[in-house]
Amino acid sequence: MERTVAFFVPGLLYVALFLLNGFLPGRWVHGYISNPETSEKMKYRLNGILVFFAAVLSWFVLGYFDMISYDWLYRYRWYELGGAFAFGMFFSLAVVVPYPSVKKSFWKDFYLGRKENLQFMDGRIDAKMWLYLVGAIMLELNALSFTAHHYLLYQHQSSTGIFLTTILLTYFLIDYLTFEEVHLYTYDLFAERVGFKLGWGCLVFYPYFYAISLWSTVDLPDPHTPTSFLICYVLLFFLGWGLSRGANLQKYFFKKNPTKAFLGILPETISDGNNLLLVNGFWGMSRHINYLGEILMGTGIILCTGYPALIWPWLYPLYYVILLFPRQIDDDKRCVLKYGKLWDEYKQKVPYRIIPFIY
Ligand code: NDP
């Protein structure tokens, strides 16, 4: 019986999060892209951080009153993964099939999507932002439950590194939701359609694969990683966070007001008369220092588990390399089309793609 329930849990949770996203208080903001039908800036209603804390509090209260054990999601993870998989497929079909085709092949449309922007309930819910939100919350609940399993198993002999991994993952998610508005200025929002890649990616891949470092180590005993090593791993994570968050915020403020200083640094720019590009601060280190930051954060998170010789946790930062290196090449092509000679000038001024002095 519990296995059947577990299969339906992700789907039910995603629906509940849809309702919370739609009905909890939120703030309306203008996005970066324009609505192709009206040419006006897209509007979004954001309340991700509130939905996140409502979900985490519910998990805690249900566990506290013994209604659902804290490690339930860990015990039935394979059934939940199966349910999330099915829900993700159903969702992907539902957001692709009803809309006019974009590519000749249905499968290309299915994978990449047909609609650029899908909003529900008079714009109160944006499909892309909802997808990133539910992915983040399901990941957090998985991380908490997996860690609870470790604690229930080992009690006072639990590994400090496991708790650190969960704290860093939680920080990563809260940080994303705190700066949810900045996400409106990223590739995901301006260059992607809603299909399998984004839908299945956020409903299945994000909450389960991103938890792989915990999934693969919470059953193992404390590896007794020296405290000095753990401190280095946490510092590595925050170095990555500084690069990633710093670059994303610098660009966000620049797009809103190209003359405003960020962290006391006035924007230095190049221009062709129509467009402006930033060439200093984070955007002067490499053309995608934020991608390097993301990879360093992932590495710090998995190292904290204390099993550097185990292959599974490494898949997490490796995935970022596989995702972000080709993405940089795609983004570069997009920028060549958009900025022309100005982009060549930027490339001369900032020759490194991702890793300063190396690549
Ligand atoms: P960027 O935020 O780097 O956006 C690239 C765009 O920024 C370009 O297309 C261009 O768009 C603009 N731009 C580039 N260079 C400049 C410049 N010098 N001055 C002004 N504008 C510039 O990339 P993404 O959107 O791909 O990534 C956003 C964040 O999300 C990153 O930190 C990334 O690491 C993270 N991410 C996280 C993932 C995760 O799973 N955790 C997955 C994928 C990404 P425009 O046309 O607007 O000028």
Could you walk me through the main structural features you see in this protein, from its secondary elements to its overall organization?
- By secondary structure, the chain is mainly α.
- It is 64% helix and 7% strand.
- It is built from 16 helices and 6 strands.
- The strands form 3 sheets. A two-stranded antiparallel ribbon has the order 1-2. A two-stranded antiparallel ribbon has the order 3-4.
- Helix 6 runs antiparallel to helix 7 (160-178) and helix 14 runs antiparallel to helix 15.
- The longest helix has 30 residues, at 227-256.
- It is globular.
- The mean pLDDT is 94.
- Bound molecules: NADPH dihydro-nicotinamide-adenine-dinucleotide phosphate.
Shape: globular
Class of secondary structure makeup: mainly alpha
Strand content: 5-15%
What can be said about the biggest beta sheet? 2 strands, antiparallel
Separation, N- and C-terminal Cα atoms = 53 Å
How large is the radius of gyration? 21 Å
Strand order of the largest sheet: 1-2
The sequence of SSEs as H and E is: HEEHHHHEEHHHHHHHEEHHHH
Bound molecule kinds, no repeats: NADPH dihydro-nicotinamide-adenine-dinucleotide phosphate
Q: Helical proportion? A: 55-70%
List the total number of helices. 16
Q: Look at the structure and give the mean pLDDT.
A: 94
Unreliable parts:
none
* Total E-strand runs: 6
